[in-house]
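Need residues for this backbone.
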């Protein structure tokens, strides 16, 4: 009698479910935590640290004060407003953003806009690479987008990318207590690092 070898078991690899944009919005309306949407994938956002939250609030306040003091027709928003990036089929939550004149709402949704002129992200270990590379690439596909602000939370350092008339981008580094970052897309708005980081303990500077 000839024995035949049994066929090896083939494990089926379960692919992650892809969601429609409509399904994402419905889930997000009921969710206790924020989620971002990347071409069908729904990603849970991790909770922020004390410094991350304080820097988000502080930069929003500094920008809002500048707009109000100079009577400018800009809107400054915090981390609860979503941005729709059509070319990448994505929805993201920046830490802060600036809109020139009126918001353009995505399909009439007042929680999602498509026309930020400035986007601010506070960097953390888990999101730094994504913020610096993937998200920046996505934001650059938005016609309205003119300036990208990256804020470190472990040391006094701000990086700003500013779009030029020839569609290229200029990078400017600002570091240290006496540095004053400048937002050229917001009427040369100054962003003193001494005010931004005031009262925060920074692990990278101990």
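Answer:
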């Amino acid at each position: 009698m000839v024995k035949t070898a049994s066929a090896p078991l083939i494990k089926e690899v379960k692919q992650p479910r892809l969601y429609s944009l409509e399904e994402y919005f419905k889930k997000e309306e009921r969710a206790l935590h924020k989620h971002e949407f990347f071409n069908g994938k729904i990603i849970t956002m991790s909770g922020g640290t004390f410094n991350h939250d304080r820097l988000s609030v502080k930069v929003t306040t500094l920008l809002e004060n500048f707009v109000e003091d100079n009577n400018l027709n800009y809107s400054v928003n915090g981390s609860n407003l979503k941005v729709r990036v059509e070319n990448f089929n994505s929805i993201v939550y920046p830490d802060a953003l600036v809109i020139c004149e009126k918001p353009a709402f995505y399909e009439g949704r007042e929680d999602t806009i498509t026309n930020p002129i400035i986007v601010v992200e506070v960097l953390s270990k888990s999101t730094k690479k994504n913020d610096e590379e993937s998200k920046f690439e996505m934001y650059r596909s938005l016609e309205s987008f003119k300036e990208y602000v990256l804020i470190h939370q472990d040391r006094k350092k701000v990086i700003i990318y500013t779009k030029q008339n020839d569609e290229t981008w200029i990078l400017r580094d600002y570091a240290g207590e006496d540095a004053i970052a400048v937002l050229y897309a917001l009427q040369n708005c100054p962003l003193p690092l001494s005010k931004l980081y005031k009262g925060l303990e920074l692990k990278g500077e101990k």
